[in-house]
Amino acid sequence: MLNADNPGARRLTRRDALTLGIGAFVVASIPLAARRPRQLVRRTVPVMGTLAELAVVGADPRAAHAAIDAAIEELRRVDRLMTRFSASSEIGTANRLALTRPVAVGDATAAVLREALTWAEASDGAFDPALGRAIGLWDVARRRTPPSGAAVRPLAGRRLFQAVALDRWRGRPVVRFTDPDVALDLGGIAKGWGVDRAADALRAHGVTQALVNVGGDLYALGAAPDGAPWRIGIRSPEDPAALAGEVEVRDAAVATSGDYLQYFRWGGRRYHHLLDPATGAPRVTPVRSVTVVAASCLAADAAATAVFGMTPEHAARLLRVRAAGARLASVIATEA
Fold first, then answer.
1. 104, 106, 111, 84: which is closest to 95 by C-alpha?
2. What does pLDDT average to in each consecutive run of 10 residues of the chain (336 residues)?
3. pTM (predicted TM-score)
4. Which domains does the chain show, CATH number per domain?
5. Contacts of range 1-6, beta carbons closer than 8 Å, 24 or more positions apart
6. Which DSSP symbol is given to 146?
7. Of 34, 213, 218, 253, which residue has the fewest beta carbons closer than 10 angstroms?
């Protein structure tokens, strides 16, 4: 694990390999064969309820640190706007007031919410950004027993995303709710948007080779230090110290949804954080992990959430509709 209090820069040699290991991925570059001195600058910071790892390859450590600073600020900005855990964020304000009046949001929040609602419609509700009440009810990070059926049933099968209206008023985007059970949670898509904005910030600072990994949502900018694609190792759900597979990417995003990092056990069953909108409860499926490769991290993030537990045919059909060129890189399931 990288040390957030001691961001370091060190000279890369032919025998060096970059390794990042937070969340669902282990990321390694092929050892660098450098014609001129380059340095690896990397940092880990808490943001968006998880840890973000950023690594930049370049000749000037000061420039790399400045680029990382800008990328981190983008992640924090997205978090400030779109977290449901702050009553004063744009999403928090919408959750408090949008049932009673239109609530103005910024262009960024509107863009992410629009994408989320489009994914919800395309997936026939398998992805639902309005399921915040059920997500809060289950709260798998703190809960140790399931909530009562009486509490869950009113939130099941409601297609609550259809009760969210995104309009414009006086030139600004506004959000309205038409159902009191709506609560927005953009956790299945906003992190991907944040990773994309962080990658844009790196590009704007002249960075051509970098990785941004935010708790399992990753963007690989350019090629690995040796010019080959970045190699992304997918952690095994059964043994986090082992790899279940590997994908290679260049200028592309990778996102994984799995049941093995956020969950509690009760009555011999694993209750994870990936809810099925049809039941309002954790999705019951033999699938343990799904990894998607896409052009943007927003698309990879939303897709990995939406297709978790789908049949491969249904998942492939959704990706064709919503994320042209995206692919299922890995589906890991328990044996029957």
1. 84
2. 32 35 53 59 94 93 97 98 97 98 98 98 97 96 95 97 96 97 97 98 97 94 89 86 89 94 92 96 95 97 96 94 94 80
3. 0.89
4. 8-73+193-333 (3.10.520.10), 82-177 (1.10.3980.10)
5. 1/44, 2/42, 2/43, 2/44, 2/53, 3/44, 4/43, 4/44, 4/45, 4/46, 4/51
6. P
7. 34
